[in-house]
Amino acid sequence: MSVEFLLRILGMLGFGIGGGFWGYRVAQIGPSDSAEATVTIITFALVGALAGLILTPYFTTRPARAIRSLLGRLAAESLFAGLAGLIVGLLVAALLAFPLSLLPQPFSQILPFIGVVIFSYIGISLFVMRQGDIMGLVSALSGRGEGGGSSSWSNLNRNILLDTSVIIDGRVADIAKTGFLPGTLLIPRFVLNELQYIADSPDGQRRQRGRRGMEVLAELQKLPNILVRISDINVDGVREVDDKLIVLGKQLKSPVLTNDYNLNRIAELQGVTVLNINELANAVKSVVLPGEVLRINILQEGKEHSQGVGYMEDGTMVVVENGKEYIGEYAEVGITKVLQTAAGRMIFGRIDEEQAKRNKGK
Q1: How many CA atoms lie within 13 A of 36 on its CB side?
Q2: C-alpha R_g of the chain
Q3: What are the Cα distances from residue 123, in Å, to 83, 88, 89, 95, 97?
Q4: How far apart are CA 184 and CA 195, in angstroms?
Q5: Percent of the chain with pLDDT over 90
Q6: Of 48, 136, 220, 271, which is most buried with the most CB atoms under 10 A?
Q7: Is 343 exposed, middle or buried (0-12, 13-18, 19+ CB in 10 A)?
Q8: Is 293 helix (H, G, I), strand (E, B) or coil?
Q9: Nearest one of 314, 318, 315 to 296, comparing CA atoms
């Protein structure tokens, strides 16, 4: 039996009894016999019961759901700051209540109540507006920020939203170990649900990717210098996970950590900060300039005629002209061109055939 159904029954009984009393009062107003009075009472009781059955959820469960949904969209830091501001505002209002009560009437009765409303509003607004500084101050006073703990000033002052793709990718755990992600890694419940859905997929490859994401998430939670928080915060009226992340990024003013190219572009168009792991990987790759000579293991054939493809130690692809006949061998490749794109970096080179022949002759 649901809570709403039980409240409907109670509301029906309460309104029915109230309608019956009202009908009894109405029946006593004018001259009427007992049969007419009974019909009036029953009619009012039935109308009251019907009204109670229909209207009870509108002032019980539905307002409670609306408040719960509103609180669910707020970050824990905002809730804590708002509660602290309310307490401080009530304390200030209580201190001023006594001197205000000594004023002549009606000021002694009105001003204390007005003071409670005004100072509560000021306290909540001020603490929520400066919640980052307050959380940092609490961390500093508690001493938990010393020694690089996970609750340091920066960790409490910044949330980083994680996308499903970046959890499955796995490199986020390695980056977090280095300390280059200062902040709380915030994983909304809907991202976790999508990860679980992938892990339960009938497709073996998708299922393996989902389980890898679960393992990466468990590894992140074990790291001592990273605070990982799974939140029930949600966005009403939005179904797609990427759209929800963008809306949350706007509401919380938090960056989104991803390696999804489409999510990256859409978020940037809407003014949301994006931390793209692929861009980070491209930024830290070794710099190669045209004219340098690299020793490359040519592994496969390229798309064009006589091309070969090899890879550097950091995984960067090198397209080698006239490298088809050297597949499976190491060769000295002179770099001719370097192209940097949003998808990554491509390096083009060419084998010095005379040098290669001399090396073979040796």
Answers
A1: 9
A2: 34
A3: 9, 6, 5, 14, 16
A4: 20
A5: 11
A6: 48
A7: exposed
A8: strand
A9: 318
Tell me the CATH number for domain 293-361.
2.40.50
Could you say which architecture CATH assigns to the domain 151-282?
Answer: 3-Layer(aba) Sandwich (3.40)
CA 355 to CA 331: how far, in whole Å? 9
Domain regions of the chain by residue span? 3-64, 73-129, 151-282, 293-361
Look at residue 154 in the predicted model and tell me its pLDDT. Answer: 43
Alpha helices for the chain (secondary structure H): 3-29, 34-55, 61-72, 76-101, 107-129, 131-142, 153-157, 164-169, 171-178, 189-199, 204-222, 241-252, 261-269, 277-283, 353-361
* Dihedral-angle region of residue 74 (phi above 0 means left; psi in -120 to 50 means alpha; beta otherwise): beta
H-helix or E-strand containing 341?
strand 330-341
Measure the CA–CA gap between 223 and 210, rounded to whole angstroms: 21
pLDDT tens profile 123-173: 999 888 877 677 667 766 665 444 444 444 444 457 889 999 889 988 888
pLDDT digits 0-9 by tens, 32-80: 677 888 888 889 889 988 998 888 888 888 888 888 777 766 767 778 8
Reading the block at residue 174, the tokens are: 């390695």
Q: Output 203 or 29, whichever has higher pLDDT.
A: 203
Q: How many residues does the chain have?
A: 362
Locate 75 and state its tokens: 């970050």
Q: Indicate whether this model's pTM tops 0.70.
A: no
- Residues 291-297, mean pLDDT to the nearest whole number: 86
From 16, 18, 11, select the one nearest 53 (Cα to Cα). Answer: 11
CA distance 153 to 227: 12
pLDDT: is 192 or 236 the higher one? 192
